[in-house]
Amino acid sequence: MTELLTAAQMRAIEQAAIESGEVTGLELMERAGRGVVEAVFEEWPELAETSHRAVVLCGPGNNGGDGFVVARLLKEWGWDVEVFLYGDPARLPSDARVNYERWAALGEVLPLSAAPSAMTETDLLVDALFGTGLGRGLSDEFQDVWDSHLDCIADGVAIVAVDIASGVCADSGKEIGIYAFVAELEVSFHRLKQGHVLGDRMGRAIVKDIGINTWQHHGSQTCEPVTLVCIEESSLFKTPFDHKYDHGHALILSGGAGKTGAARLAARASLRIGAGLVTLGVPGAAQMEVAGQITALMLRRVEDGDGLASVLEDERLNAVCLGPGLGAERARELVPMAVRAEHTPYIVLDADALTAFAEEPEALFGMLHEGCVLTPHGGEFARLFPDIAEKLKAVPTKGPAYSKVDATREAAARAGCVVLFKGPDTVIADPDGRCIINSAQYERAAPWLATAGSGDVLAGFITGLLARGVAPMQAAETAAWLHVECARSFGPGLIAEDLPEELPKVFRDLGL
Ligand SMILES: NC(=O)C1=CN([C@@H]2O[C@H](COP(=O)(O)OP(=O)(O)OC[C@H]3O[C@@H](n4cnc5c(N)ncnc54)[C@H](O)[C@@H]3O)[C@@H](O)[C@H]2O)[C@@H](O)CC1
Ligand SMILES: Nc1ncnc2c1ncn2[C@@H]1O[C@H](COP(=O)(O)OP(=O)(O)O)[C@@H](O)[C@H]1O
Ligand SMILES: [K+]
User: Fold this and answer.
1) What is the pLDDT of residues 227-259, one digit of tens each?
2) Pocket of ligand 2 (CB under 6 A)
3) Number of domains comprising the chain
4) What is the residue range of 356's domain?
5) Do 303 and 362 have their domain in common?
6) What torsion, rounded to 10 degrees, do the Cα atoms 454, 457, 462, 464 define?
7) Which of 72, 83, 210, 474 has a CA-to-CA distance to 224 between 20 and 30 Å?
8) Does residue 422 form part of some domain?
9) Torsion-angle region of residue 156: left (phi > 0), alpha (psi -120 to 50) or beta?
10) Binding residues for (6S)-NADPHX, per the UniProt record (predicted)?
């Protein structure tokens, strides 16, 4: 399980490690600096071959302290290293101060204002200005250095950020202020921070171990760390003795004639992910259209709320999906019937089933129960949770900033059910505070998912897993993970129809 930490959680963990007496802050700083140098040589092996030039920008806190360690280690490798400090050396925290002194025995420390001219002729730029202690945006004092770092990017200079790019909030991934740096490589310590996988992050973030092992759950953490999705393959198996009804029966409600494609996509996705049976609930006027397009899927006429209620008397129908192509009016009529159905434990609400309640989200939340899953994209999220979306959208002026994790947790608590907030950084939260991120970034980038109908397929995947008896939180995270795997497996040219068809290959690769 890959944990992602906030700055406060990381501080608490470090503090507990230091207070336990088994490691000192100075040792951690040395390991952090060593980790950065190792990561640089792994990322750019050509830099390890001979000595090169480095510019190290150090800030006024421990991030700067790591920078002094990096400078010293590179110097020991025979590099030509220039170090620039923002702030007064006398005010550095003690460990950073020790490393400042150690560096000062080897070379000069110039003020940050002198850095731009050196940055025109370097092979490596080390950004050790601010890490988890970023408290506000970088002031205009940083403008020249920031401009020069853009020139470095244009010139192809290797840029490594110590912990996280300076100016980026470690909790939210948001840029605080206007002078946020960009780095090709970010080297985090002990664990990635939430900010490494939230938002539109550039570059690549990796973790270097700094030897904190036993203390990770100590400290004054207010809630459990967020984790990256970790799927349990066992929830996807079918045993040789299973009957189709052992894997549930999903009902996907369709919109009217000419609007049935989205529900058909979701239904096919439910079937492919292993629901035993999948039925499309279709209004009479669309029956012919749908009947001509399906084979293994089944079809039931669902004209209105009463029609749905009578279909749902069948206790074998255990998961219902409403939203894709449903239409707002039909959604307003069918959603209350579905969520109140006595025998239907699981409901997925997507697309129109969310937008239909934009005027009265509280009425929707009042009906929901713990078997429900909401799957909004950014627009739908803002319609249902306008105040939360406002907070998330606000341009932060200080850190730590309100994050997509905070927003999704707040939404789940308000809705009283699992909320999956889509994006390349899909955040899934349970009302109990558990929170998981499915990151489609760095080596898991799946930009081909930005195609019409891919969200319908995701809703279908979740519904299928719920039908199979997977609990809502796990169904949402497993579906989100498989969705990205299907996109990555298919690759460029992907359209939504391809996602369910790629699932058998992904399953085979998982060894199912
Ligand atoms: N504490 C530890 O034991 C370890 C810390 N590590 C490093 O320490 C970093 C965290 O250190 P700190 O907590 O000292 O935080 P930082 O070094 O990120 O920055 C904090 C300092 O910057 C100032 N500051 C914040 N925002 C500013 C702004 N916009 N303009 C000007 N000044 C600003 C603060 O007043 C404070 O002096 C981590 O990111 C990591 O790089 C690593 O060495 C691993 C061990
Ligand atoms: N650039 C991207 N990288 C990774 N995933 C993406 C990207 N763009 C969209 N997605 C994913 O694709 C899906 C799109 O869903 P949605 O916006 O509801 O589309 P639609 O309504 O067309 O079905 C979501 O699961 C989202 O997380
Ligand atoms: K940094």
Assistant:
1) 999 998 988 998 889 889 899 999 999 999 999
2) 351, 377, 422-424, 426, 440, 446-447, 449-450, 452-456, 458, 483
3) 2
4) 240-509
5) yes
6) -170
7) 210
8) yes
9) left
10) 62-66, 131-137, 163, 262, 325, 377, 456
In degrees to the nearest 10, what's the CA dihedral of 233, 235, 240, 246?
-160
The partner residues of 53 in beta bridges, in order of sequence, read: 80
Of 166, 195, 228, the residue at which a domain comes to its end is 228
Mean pLDDT value across residues 500-512: 97
Strands 192-193 and 158-162, how do they pair? unpaired
| The two three-digit tokens of residue 90, written as one number | 């006398």
Q: What is the pLDDT of residues 417-431, one digit of tens each?
A: 999 999 999 999 999
In a domain, 233, yes or no: no
Residue position matching structure tokens 């008896």: 469
Q: What is the dihedral of CA 46, 51, 56, 62, to 10 degrees?
A: 90
Are 289 and 336 part of one and the same domain?
A: yes
Of 163, 197, 228, the residue that ends a domain is 228
**Amino acid making up residue 241:** F
**Same-domain pairing of 199 and 316:** no
In this structure, the answer to whether residues 210 and 349 fall within a common structural domain is no
- Would you say residue 215 has pLDDT above 70? no
- Together in a domain, 144 and 265: no
Residue 235 maps to a domain:
no
Which ligand ends up closest to the CA of 426?
2
Looking at residue 398, the DSSP 8-state letter turns out to be: B
What is the pLDDT confidence band of residue 214, given thresholds at 50, 70 and 90? low
- Residue 170, annotated as binding a ligand: no
Residue 424 labelled as part of a binding site: yes
Q: What value of ipTM does the predicted structure carry?
A: 0.95
- What pLDDT, on the 0 to 100 scale, is given for residue 65? 98
35 is in an annotated binding site: no
**What is the domain-level CATH number for residue 135?**
3.40.50.10260
Top mutation candidate among 380, 422, 499 for ligand 2, by most atoms within 8 Å of CB? 422
Task: Say how many Å lie between the CA of residue 128 and the centre of ligand 1.
Answer: 9
User: Does 212 lie in the same domain as 275?
Assistant: no
Q: Are residues 314 and 169 part of one domain?
A: no
Q: Are residues 223 and 244 in the same domain?
A: no
Residue-averaged pLDDT of the chain: 96
Give, for ligand 1, the residue of 134, 188, 193 to mutate: max count of ligand atoms closer than 8 Å to Cβ. Answer: 134
Average pLDDT value for residue range 65-86: 98
Tell me: pLDDT of 504 over 80.
Answer: yes
